[in-house]
Amino acid sequence: LARQVKTIREQVRAMKQHWPSFALAEAPDDKAVWFGPLAGLERTYRLMIEYGLPTRAADAMCRRFPVVRVLLPRLELNFDAAEEAPLPHVYFSKPDPTLSPLCLFDVEAGEWSHDDLIALTTVPWAADWLACYEGWLATGRWFGGGRHASMPQAKAS
Amino acid sequence: VRRAGQQHQRRARRHYRLYAHRSIRGPVTDRWPADLTAQSTYIDDLKLFRQQLAALMSDELSLPNKSKLLGVMFGEGPARAVVEDYAARIGDSVRQGTRRIAPSGRVLPAAVAAPAIVTPAAAQPRGHTFHGSRWPGK
User: Fold this and answer.
1) Looking at this predicted complex, what is its ipTM?
2) A135, B90: Cβ pair inside 8 Å?
């Protein structure tokens, strides 16, 4: 079956169905931004999800895949963590690394594409990230697995 | 036997008269503190313990702070071990894709996830691999 890029309308509808507490901030025909709460292990975080349909000049990250940022409480950098210091699995961004987009899937392995629904992939994956992040904050160890761009295979832990 | 029972009832009534105002309705241990001062200290400890348990159950504290609180309550070694075990169990269920996601977003390890409290479609998303860039210089 041919895969089909989901429209913004389809993404918005699915988000409303599965994550009704996420508020749609703006949604022109080719882009959408949501703000909403997502529970970690012990605390609830406020997230921003930004997504745009692919364009020829797809230089904006949000037009390649949904960009998820944690707004509140702010992410904490830990340079002394035994693993993944100072912040695990993000695309480090300046000037404020605590607002770095989360790296929720392997881009090189094509784990997400524009025919996927954000509500069924990105949001639950962000929940996974938050749970593992809280564990990392408490222990300095990242138990959620994953890999970095330079690593050939997924690591065990 | 009847006499022993009556004596026990008299003792219980006397204890109740002495300690009922302490809000303890019955013995919570088989060894009562020796005197009222010890009893008072014991009750204060129980109140503190109850407050600490409430803090552990609330969503006001982050996991690192709960870890510190557990350290105060039970000692650093046991606290560290139990928090690591907890984080590892959650991480394993995420990595293996066996967890479920509650409507709030909370990750539930398979063992505690009841089907009724999870959103059907988003509850068990397909597998994924955390990715990302390294901190410059790492």
Assistant:
1) 0.87
2) yes
